[in-house]
Amino acid sequence: MLHLLTLWLLALPIGSFEYSNDYTTWHTEHWRQYLSHLVGVDNAQGLEIGCYEGRSTIWLEQHIFTGKDAHMTCVEVSTKQLELVRRNIDAAGLTGEVVALYGPSQHVLRGLPINHYDFVYVDGCHLAHCALADLVNAYLVTKPGGLIMIDDLSMGRVWRAFAAFVRVFTEPDPDDQHVVLEVLEVRRHRRATDMQPGVSILRKVGEPYHDRP
Ligand SMILES: C[S@@+](CC[C@H](N)C(=O)[O-])C[C@H]1O[C@@H](n2cnc3c(N)ncnc32)[C@H](O)[C@@H]1O
Fold first, then answer.
1. CA-based, 20 to 30 A from 47: which of 63, 103, 167, 201?
2. What does residue 173 show for φ and ψ, rounded to 5 degrees?
3. What is the mean pLDDT of residues 43-51?
4. If pLDDT is split at 50, 70 and 90, which confidence band does 189 have?
5. Within a domain: residue 79?
């Protein structure tokens, strides 16, 4: 009984969260559906572009990246947001578990390890050129077999970036028809019932930059 009480107390947030908008809850169904294979997996790694208030990163750390040495990292360009994110990470009792990196994702991701992340969530700058750079960089840092999710496809400029990325990355190799990206799901428009923004889930297939048999 004492053991159960201790576990319950450890699961409680340490402080109070400073959240003003919830961009997380409408995606949790998707994350449970597509990321369940990562729950409890040691060393699984997730990355979010655009931390905002840290809510999605904290949710993913608490519900998906639960294995030993499994972690979420997020990238945020606003110092004000980053301070808030770090306070929320502390409030969740996840200091030292979740890493929040400062800088424009288009630069920061170039310093992250290639083929490393099991899941990358693209939800930062929503200009077409930023979103396209984020998708290409997300592709590079995702493990072969790993998943990429992009949010806000209902915005025309995000959709254009997404469409350009998918068009090029799903084109089969003319020699052997090898494909390096699969589209698992795409929903362009908001779901009217709950205002969920358009999203897509993509899978990086194989390792396109090495020799293939
Ligand atoms: C829509 S919010 C993200 C919401 C968040 N993903 C969530 O689920 O709670 C977009 C965030 O991306 C950040 N951002 C915008 N441009 C960025 C960039 N170039 N690099 C990193 N973060 C960026 C913004 O400051 C903002 O906090």
1. 167
2. -60, 125
3. 98
4. confident
5. yes
**Of all residues in the chain, what percent carry a pLDDT higher than 70?**
89
Q: Is the CB of 81 under 6 A from ligand 1?
A: yes
Least confident of 67-81, 119-133, 159-173, 184-198: 184-198
**CB atoms near residue 46 (< 10 Å):** 26
Judge whether 16 lies within some domain.
no
How does pLDDT run across 139-153, given as a tens digit for each residue? Answer: 999 999 999 999 999
> CB of 56 closer than 6 A to ligand 1?
yes
Q: Which atom of ligand 1 is nearest to the CA of 104?
A: 20
CB 200 less than 6 A from any atom of ligand 1: no
Do the domain assignments include residue 194? yes
Show the domain range for 54.
Answer: 24-204
Number of H helices, E strands in the chain: 7, 7
Q: How many domains does the chain have?
A: 1
202 is written with which tokens? 């993509």
Let me know: does 121 contact 48? Beta carbons within 8 Å.
Answer: yes
Does ligand 1 have an atom closer than 6 angstroms to the CB of 77? yes
Q: Does 212 map to a domain?
A: no
Structure tokens belonging to residue 163: 């469409």
Cα torsion through 82, 120, 169, 202, rounded to 10 = -130
The SS3 of residue 104 is coil
* Tokens of residue 64, six digits: 């998906």
pTM of the complete model: 0.91
Interval between CA 105 and ligand 1 midpoint (Å) = 9
